[in-house]
UniProtKB/TrEMBL annotation:
One of its GO terms (biological process) is glyoxylate cycle. The lineage of its organism: Bacteria, Pseudomonadati, Pseudomonadota, Betaproteobacteria, Burkholderiales. Bifunctional enzyme which can phosphorylate or dephosphorylate isocitrate dehydrogenase (IDH) on a specific serine residue. This is a regulatory mechanism which enables bacteria to bypass the Krebs cycle via the glyoxylate shunt in response to the source of carbon. When bacteria are grown on glucose, IDH is fully active and unphosphorylated, but when grown on acetate or ethanol, the activity of IDH declines drastically concomitant with its phosphorylation. Its main location: cytoplasm. Coiled coil: none annotated. It is found in: Cytoplasm. It catalyses: L-seryl-[isocitrate dehydrogenase] + ATP = O-phospho-L-seryl-[isocitrate dehydrogenase] + ADP + H(+). GO terms for cellular component: cytoplasm. This is Isocitrate dehydrogenase kinase/phosphatase. Residues 322-587 form the Isocitrate dehydrogenase kinase/phosphatase (AceK) kinase domain.
Amino acid sequence: MFPQRLDSPLAYDIARAMLDGFNRHYRLFRAESARAKHRFETADWRGQQRAQRERIEFYDLRVKECVMRLAKEFKAGEQAMDVWQQVKLHYIGLLVDHHQPELAETFFNSVTTKILHRSYFHNDFIFVRPAVSTEYIEVGIGGANQRPTYRAYYPTPGTFDAVLVQMVNDFDLQRVFDDLPRDAARVRQLLQAWLGDAPLRANFQIQMLATPFFRNKGAYLCGKLINGFSAHPFALPVLHGANGRLAIDAVLIGEDDMLMLFSFARAYFMVDMEIPSAYVQFLRSMMPRKPRNEIYNALGLAKQGKTLFYRDLLQHLNHSSDRFRIAPGIKGMVMLVFDLPSFPYVFKLIKDHFPPQKETTREQVKGKYLLVKQHDRVGRMADTLEYSEVALPRERFDDELIAEIEKFAPSQIEIGDGRGEVVLKHVYIERRMIPLNLYLQEAFDAGADSPRGRAQIESAVVEYGNAIKDLVAANIFPGDMLWKNFGVARHGKVVFYDYDEIEYLTDCNFRSVPLPRNEEEEMSGEVWYRVGPKDVFPETFAPFLLGHPAVREVFMRHHADLLARDFWQAQKERIQAGCVHDVFPYAQHKRFNQIFTSKETP
């Protein structure tokens, strides 16, 4: 029962201190995101990668700081529950005119759950649902920051190119373009081709989010082209050319292109946002199929993404009746994987014990997942949501699954406490994909010589090799390269999702299998040569990967270099020399240098 009167001055002081903690966090988060513009302009790619890694840690550091302050100044953990009830109400009042209320509510939850025992922080003491609306928040007229969330432009057939030039210049990138009028003409040509022969309506306009999205070596200008009843999302990638000047590299247009750009398998963007909810609302209008939690994640606001995901999960459980089950596919030796058939995610628990061939520990596995979280995932490694103490209804679990968890990961489950709950102590959650080995089996079942089977094998094997090469470009060696450790995502994209054996490419020692010195060694069924802990022999991949003739034929035609030590060693040496590879979130055929000749005048 919440109090009818706010009569605790201490409660207000605690609420004020918590909001101060959040404001400090978002101020630092935003400042680091804003500095991405300067790093892009100065081509500081190493700095950009470092900042992307370090920014991920900001949130937990600020939560820890706030918890320590509340304990030291207010003895927060010793306060009565009626004080904590008032803390939440005061906090809501402080958020009425706040520009990031949804993020501040999540920060409140994070701090509160560090202070109070789990039995106390159910509905009454945390924000299970948002309390403050994020609709129609906008920077006030005359405020310190008068930049709107998006700008609108109104081109006509005669001014289209000039408006596009002005639109790009409004982003104030402090580096000279090689030929912006040329790039604008190309953008206009492709946008007009997308519209086809549709007449331009009275509302014809371009709406552009006011700040660029930075990731790796690119800046992305995101907006939508509106004509009549249609809105067409698009993005313009801006890159550094070989001459050091800027150039627009492509036009990504349509929801599918935007979904690829904002994929869950890519690193988070850096973007300076005063009102993140307004950015999310705009992006959701461009990608209505993308959940809001994944958009927050893509913007680097992973804690808010986790909050929204958990709310979506609880909402789904309220409106469904199927049960969590052991996930289809080959069982892993390190992770126990289960899913809810009607929900497009998988849940992973680290097992308590591993077979002898897996020389690893729980902490090492967690370290691998953290590495992936902080690394450039180049569209080839699935992002994971990491949770602790997740309570779910016992009645929604198959008995077989409960038995499996109690057998292989008993330390990760707690059942009971009077509410019929299953509490998962530590769980990773990822987007569900079709395991690549099952996807290939579907093709084999359809017939490797049938048009469908042949096309599916071709696309899967080519994508598999492309995925490995993209990971290599990002300084990642997958470790276990078996088909079962990769999945097929939207649009047939192959993504890696088994991280317990990944290593930095530069930490690996790539070797060729030595020639046998005698007949005994040649006929030996065992490895007769010395193998160090980081030694990799690429030529030995073939027996494990290429057993099916149709798979072998496609693989050798497109990716035979993956079986050669020289390929891996050359990539390692390039990275060690300081090369930051280009891995594009769009197909090569979309690039202007593939569409237009250098001398072309549109």
